[in-house]
Design a protein that fits this description.
33% of the residues lie in helices and 19% in strands. It has twelve helices and 16 strands. Helix 1 packs across helix 6 and helix 11 packs parallel to helix 12. The relative contact order is 0.14. The structure holds threonylcarbamoyladenylate and magnesium ion.
């Protein structure tokens, strides 16, 4: 399959191109598109064969449900059979934006979308290109992150093309994603709201609206293979570059000393070394990348940097991590996964 590339400026959306991309989606094709979080791999949520094709293109396990993307709040009851007042408050506060709510599904939503669950994930993205595409398609759009399953999520069109060229109909290049980590997934289908995946909206922001929001324990604890988290995606190895990543956390001076020690050892073993920093770049390694000085900047750059280490044939990466702001939970969650839980606290 030849993958078409549409370059669309979010400040000046080309109607002809967006309508063409919308038509591909509507008739069952796969179109990757930018959102404010990461690039998504869109399919028509009403065509099960199209939805299933996203799983094949990504190599994604079929028991991991997808998020349904819509442009307007008024479409929620077409997807969900219940829209409780607390969910309305979250949507009114944080949507359009990096929030996904889990609600009880409408019977018309196919099992291919929800992996057989009785609930459905719904999100209203804020990115102008995403919104225009959903409107042009005229249907709800399922969209997992547009990476090969297990790889770091794509935050620009090049990442998508590297993973998906030849596997999907089209990619819309709309530049870099603003947030850089995925949406926060909040389960609103039960008595108590529970964060199933930390993301672009922080727990503090959510608690300002709903003080009883809980954190699912799988976010803070390592997940064993026999365990079944409520957010199925949380159990899979994720965000992993080919390089072996180790996270080093703690007091800044001690982190630096530890990384220098690890670099020396890795060099002696003949490995190509990398450091992803939140502080200075004066490390003695083959490639040193500054991902950001705070967690917000780090979130935006992290997935690009992880891919850059692979492009440069780096064998081992040591990543500094310091908690600086509300996005720390989301960043730490992705970083630990990319490191397969290899974490050193000093
Ligand atoms: O920011 C985002 O959310 C991006 C952009 C493209 O919108 N999408 C994204 O999709 O991250 P994906 O498929 O990579 O992650 C969706 C997560 C998975 O962890 C999945 O298990 C969970 O949402 N999920 C989907 N439906 C669910 C449901 N009914 N109950 C619990 N978790 C669900
Ligand atoms: Mg993903």
């Amino acid at each position: 399959m030849k993958t078409q590339i549409f370059k669309i400026d979010s400040n000046n959306i080309n109607e002809t191109l967006i309508n063409e991309a919308g038509a591909i989606l509507r008739r069952g094709g796969l179109v990757a598109f930018p959102t404010e979080t990461v690039y998504g791999l869109g399919a028509n949520a009403l065509i099960p064969v199209a939805v299933k094709a996203t799983f094949t293109a990504k190599g994604r396990p079929s028991d991991n449900p997808l998020i349904v993307h819509i442009a307007d709040k008024s479409d929620i009851l077409k997807i969900a059979r219940d829209f409780p007042p607390d969910a309305v408050r979250l949507i009114d506060t944080f949507s359009p934006g990096p929030l996904t709510v889990i609600l009880k599904k409408q019977p018309s939503i196919d099992d291919a979308v929800t992996a057989g669950l009785d609930t459905v994930a719904v999100r209203i993205p804020s990115h102008p290109v995403a919104r225009a595409l959903i409107k042009a398609a005229g249907v709800p759009v399922t969209a997992p992150s547009a990476n090969l399953s297990g790889k770091p999520s794509p935050t620009n069109a090049k990442h998508v093309i590297d993973d998906m060229d030849g596997r999907i109909d089209a990619v819309i290049d709309g530049g870099e994603c603003e947030v850089g980590v995925e949406s926060t997934v909040v389960d609103m289908s039960g008595e108590i709201p529970v964060i199933l995946r930390p993301g672009g909206i922080t727990p503090e922001q959510l608690r300002a609206v709903l003080p009883n929001v809980q954190l699912d324990r799988h976010i803070t604890e390592a997940v064993s293979v026999n365990d079944t988290p409520k957010c199925p995606g949380m159990k899979y190895k994720h965000y992993a570059p080919d390089a072996e990543v180790t996270v080093i956390e703690g007091e800044r001076g001690a982190v630096r000393v530890k990384i220098c020690e690890l670099l020396e050892k890795a060099c002696a073993e003949g490995k190509r070394t990398g450091v992803m920093t939140m502080s200075d770049t004066d490390y003695c390694a083959d490639l040193v990348l500054h991902a950001g000085s705070d967690n917000k900047e780090f979130a935006k750059n992290m997935f690009t940097q992880l891919r850059t280490f692979d492009e440069n044939g780096i064998d081992v990466v040591f990543a500094e991590f310091f908690e600086t702001d509300g996005l720390a939970l989301a960043v730490r969650n992705r970083l630990y996964k990319s490191a397969a839980n290899r974490v050193i606290r000093v």
